[in-house]
Specification:
Largest sheet: 4 strands, antiparallel
Distance between the termini: 45 Å
Structural class: alpha+beta
Helix content: 40-55%
Shape: globular
Strand order of the largest sheet: 1-2-3-4
Length: 127
């Protein structure tokens, strides 16, 4: 059996992290999972062109899925920190970097790492 390449490892990890967040927020329907697969296919090409970007794939896939969901269904993931005012989505930070996490800019808190929304109830203050 051939070992899995670093590119494929990064793509599989990104898929797993984003799917975990979709499951945690009860939106992992078949058509939504298809959005993840579309992003993975596009990001595969991107990482083939820029192998050093493999560490950034999870955040990019999360952003791709978030953008696709906004176009089709509405904001996702909704902020679990702010209890009043208009519902708003979390953002991914850094936009292009390793260790992506979901952030509420309104409250100024880091809510959860990408892939860890299931355990997010509050947040920690962003620096």
């Amino acid at each position: 059996m051939d070992p899995i390449s670093p590119l494929e490892q990064a793509l599989h990890a990104a898929r797993a992290l984003v799917l975990a967040d979709l499951v945690a927020r009860d939106v992992a329907e078949a058509d939504v999972v298809s959005l993840v697969e579309e992003s993975i296919a596009q990001r595969r090409w991107w990482v083939e062109q820029w192998p050093d970007g493999a560490a950034f794939v999870a955040g990019l896939v999360a952003q791709d899925v978030q953008d696709a969901l906004l176009e089709r269904y509405g904001r996702w993931p909704l902020c679990p920190v702010c209890g009043s005012g208009d519902p708003h989505a979390l953002d991914v930070e850094p936009e292009l970097g390793p260790d992506p996490h979901w952030v509420c800019h309104k409250a100024g808190v880091r809510v959860a790492s990408v892939g860890s929304l299931g355990g997010a109830a509050g947040g920690t203050v962003s620096s």
